[in-house]
Amino acid sequence: MPYLAINTVQELSAAQKEKIKAELGRLMTIIPTKTEAGLLIDFSGGRTLYKGGQEVNGAFVDLRLFKKSELEPKKKYTAEVFDLLSRELGIEKEHMYLTIGEYENWGARGELL
User: CATH number of the domain at 3-59+66-107, please?
Assistant: First the structure.
């Protein structure tokens, strides 16, 4: 079950969330063994982000994965997410950040996997 938190300066409408959610689900399959069915997405809009002491129209994306994945699919996924947020929200790529954490210990469905 990948977990994806998206923090944006903008408040997102229900329509924007739906469109971005659908595309993120499709993109999740770039990473082997990951699926849209297992993807949990957490949208947080209306955030304030500063870079170099200046407020920016930006986004921070935090992807958490169960187990380690190969580097090249993660690079492709990152580029695709940046393209998506730039296209849908008008955020410049220099104001977007994405982290990928990979965890050996993950609890789901009432148990530690």
Answer: 3.30.429.10
